[in-house]
Amino acid sequence: MTKKELRHIYRQKRLLLKEAETDKLQDLITIRFQELALPFLHYLHTYLPVDIQKEVDTYPVMELLKFSNPGLNIVVPKTNVESNGMAHYIYDENTILIKNAYNIMEPQGGRMINSTDIDMVLVPLLAFDERGSRVGYGKGYYDRFLAECRKDVIKVGLSFFEAEPLIDDTDEFDIPLTHCVTPQKVYEF
């Protein structure tokens, strides 16, 4: 299937999830995430979940990683619509968040971090395939950002659903995941 088809299907699948089902799937993802063999992390880049999109909640994973990586710096993006890029800011108790045009909470300001400093990225997605290709929201922000990161950056998707066999229309600008965590398993690519 194409990215456009998968984007439509998986948006609908998410919207059909009941709250109790989402809570259970979320707990299973957090438990399954602990199977990842990760090095010590200094900088974790993460998306902040959008409730109306029913995205996988990254906060439990952040807390888990902060526990296992004392001193871990959490980094969140701020989009720049004019440049189609993102800036990356430390996210802590002093960070002021504001909602952007896409209903995503972003830092108003703070201490910026270079893409090359980041050790691991929790990458938003709607669907992914067995090769690690993913379907995002269609703007390309994360593919451009991931291309700026170090070659060894760990790219982890979180999904309520299992992998599709193949996304038909990937191209050379699509940056694949290194892992994806679902309620059923951890995929390594």
Task: State the gist of this model.
With 189 residues, the protein is of the alpha/beta class. Helix content is 24%, strand content 23%.
Write the layout of secondary structure elements.
Layout: H1 3-15, H2 19-33, E1 43-46, H3 59-68, E2 73-80, E3 85-90, E4 97-99, E5 105-107, E6 120-123, E7 127-128, E8 134-135, H4 141-148, E9 154-158, E10 179-181, E11 186-188
Parallel strand pairs: 1-2, 1-6, 6-9, 9-10
Antiparallel strand pairs: 2-3, 4-5, 7-8, 10-11
Task: Describe the protein.
This protein has helices at residues 3-15, 19-33, 59-68, 141-148, and strands spanning 43-46, 73-80, 85-90, 97-99, 105-107, 120-123, 127-128, 134-135, 154-158, 179-181, 186-188. The protein is an alpha/beta fold. The strands form three sheets. A seven-stranded mixed sheet has the order 3-2-1-6-9-10-11. Strand 1 (43-46), helix 3 (59-68) and strand 2 form a beta-alpha-beta unit. The two termini are 20 Å apart. The mean pLDDT is 96.
Give a quick set of tags describing it.
alpha/beta, 4 helices, seven-stranded mixed beta sheet
What are the low-pLDDT stretches, counting only 5+ consecutive residues below 50? none
Shape: globular
Alpha carbon gap, first and last residue: 20 Å
What is the helical fraction, as a range of percent? 10-25%
Radius of gyration: 16 Å
Describe the largest sheet.
7 strands, mixed
Helix and strand composition category:
alpha/beta
Strand proportion = 15-25%
State the total count of DSSP E strands.
11
Order of helices and strands: HHEHEEEEEEEHEEE
Strand order of the largest sheet: 3-2-1-6-9-10-11
Helices, by number, come to 4
User: What is the residue-averaged pLDDT?
Assistant: 96
